[in-house]
Amino acid sequence: MKPRLVLIGNGMAGAKLLEELVATAPDLFDITVFGNEPYGNYNRIMLSPLLAGDKSLDEIMINDRDWYQSHGITLNAGPEKAITQINRSSRQVHSADGTCCRYDRLIIATGSKPFMLPIPGIDLNGVMSFRDISDVENMIKASERYKTAVVIGAGLLGLEAAMGLRTRGMDVTVVHSNDIPLNRQLDQEAGELLKQQLSEKGLRFKMNARTTAILPSEQHADLNGDLQDKKQHVGKLQFSDGSELQADLVIMAIGIRPNKQLAEEARIHCEKGIVVSDNLQTYDPRIYALGECIQHRGGTFGLVAPLYDQAKVLSNHLCEHGVARYYSLPTATKLKVTGINLFSVGNFIGGGNSETIIYRDKQAGIYKKLIIEDDRLIGAILYGDTQEGPFYNELLDSTEDIEPFRQYLMFGRALCDEIKATYEPKRSNKTNIYKANANLKTNVKTKAKRPVEPKTRNLQDSPSTHKVA
Ligand SMILES: Cc1cc2nc3c(=O)[nH]c(=O)nc-3n(C[C@H](O)[C@H](O)[C@H](O)COP(=O)(O)OP(=O)(O)OC[C@H]3O[C@@H](n4cnc5c(N)ncnc54)[C@H](O)[C@@H]3O)c2cc1C
Q1: Is the minimum distance from the CB of 346 to ligand 1 under 6 angstroms?
Q2: In a domain? residue 213
Q3: Mean pLDDT of the chain
Q4: Is 336 in the pocket of ligand 1 (CB under 6 A)?
Q5: What is the pLDDT of residues 49-83, one digit of tens each?
Q6: Among 210, 336, 340, 352, fewest CB within 10 Å belongs to which?
């Protein structure tokens, strides 16, 4: 009999793991999946284009139910199939409808939960998050019925939600606690450019604002037109400075928290998230976790690229295909709003021994900033022209010494590659390399370079790897 592998959470990380498993070892496990959304697997990233009307539901599906069947995977999908308990001693999981399933290996990929401000009025009708298909369906319904929306949070999700609702004809104000939108990705100058461009597209902003309460409206019935649940509908927001803002719809987009409740209840070691080792194993050697629910070397996750790397490492480990370890690299971010090109990666503020190279063309709306430390690129912001984003991302990942082509760095890959090509033949002796290329007017430096290790975080919170009998 094949070992039984059970997956809890049929989202982007869990489904990627399934793809990896069926690609590399299709017959190794007897696989059962529990997901509390009533679909196959869909591309959560594409919820923003779905809201904006640029994509249909069919277009954002990755693997429909047939895909699971054709790969011999048992899919239990729907709210009634949500796992409510992990019993580690009997090695079973239990779902809301009473289904019970035994495992030899258990994978937890329960994602994260939107953080909702703990303020009065948070449970009024018309106050919602932006996380799944049902949220988008409710937002579209609201946009057909109501006029005014407020989005709390000017991060990537908040801005994409705001532009989606604006595209659907609503008057939208974005409320943010900082004076820069996307302040975790952009500096002041790029943030101002973004704010200006979004304002031209019809968004309003209320910056440096702290929401203290959400108040009900006397006029609106609830979203479905009945008041069966006796809840009132949102009417306005109140702020710490005493000001108020009308709102028929409030979207909360102020961050996410790892969804670790199931694991915690099963007494699997958790801190901010479910703590895992470099091969995604929890402190229970039969149980693994990946995706936004985990904490790896002190860090948590909110973008897809690292989760896909985790899926590869975990699949490799489960299939016993040698040793692979997951380690975190800086992940680039983009905003999925038509007509806005921005890219941000790594440390875009600098400080300490870092140096900054800036290119700005105000008329063209272009701003580029590169941060360098110890002859390595450690961060970049590109606004208006993001073509070279992948190049800078690669430089960050590889921690390549940029000294030989530093003065051409801002002008992109093509020129840098040309310069590098002239260095290549004599790479073994740095002093000669620089002398040989003196005609390129590159500064001559002969100091020995210390190889830079990829930055790692505190190891102490990660379990060591355990062997399962
Ligand atoms: C609107 C939006 C836009 C985004 N845009 C981008 C982007 O442009 N780029 C990017 O890199 N990232 C983006 N992200 C983030 C990205 O979608 C997430 O990083 C990714 O989906 C996380 O994958 P996950 O599998 O960990 O969690 P999820 O995809 O959330 O999957 C977790 C699944 O587990 C299910 N689940 C939870 N508890 C249980 C239970 N007890 N039983 C059964 N099932 C359970 C959940 O319902 C869910 O289906 C975006 C996210 C959103 C919401």
Answers
A1: no
A2: yes
A3: 89
A4: yes
A5: 999 999 999 999 999 999 999 999 999 999 999 99
A6: 352
Q: Are 35 and 326 in contact (CB under 8 A)?
A: no
Q: What is the 3-state secondary structure (H, E, C) of 415-459?
A: HHHHHHHHHHHHCCCHHHHHHHCHHHCCCCCCCCCCCCCCCCCCC
CATH number at residue 61: 3.50.50.60
Q: Is the pTM of this model over 0.85?
A: yes
Instruction: Indicate if 210 and 229 belong to the same structural domain.
Output: yes
Mutate to test the pocket of ligand 1, among 6, 8, 10, 12 (most ligand atoms within 8 A of CB): 12
Please tell me the total count of domains within the chain: 3
Instruction: Look up the domain containing 374 and give its range.
Output: 343-460
Distance CA 413, CA 389 (A): 10
Co-location of 133 and 46 in the same domain: no
Of the three residues 206, 226, 252, the one that is the final residue of a domain is 252
Residue the block writes with tokens 């990233």? 45
Asked, for residue 336, whether it belongs to a domain, the answer is: no
Classify strands 30-35 and 4-8 as parallel, antiparallel or unpaired: parallel
Tokens of 122: 């948070």
- Judged by DSSP in three states, 20 sits in helix
Domain assignment present for residue 325? The answer is no
Q: Could you tell me if 260 and 244 lie in one domain?
A: no
Q: How many angstroms separate the CA atoms of 260 and 274, rounded?
A: 6
Which tops the pLDDT comparison, 447 or 133? 133
Per DSSP, 384 falls in state: S
Is 444 close to ligand 1, i.e. is its CB under 6 Å away? no
Burial, 17: exposed, middle or buried (Cβ in 10 Å; 0-12, 13-18, 19+)?
Answer: buried
Cβ burial, residue 229 (10 Å; 0-12/13-18/19+): exposed
324 within some domain: no
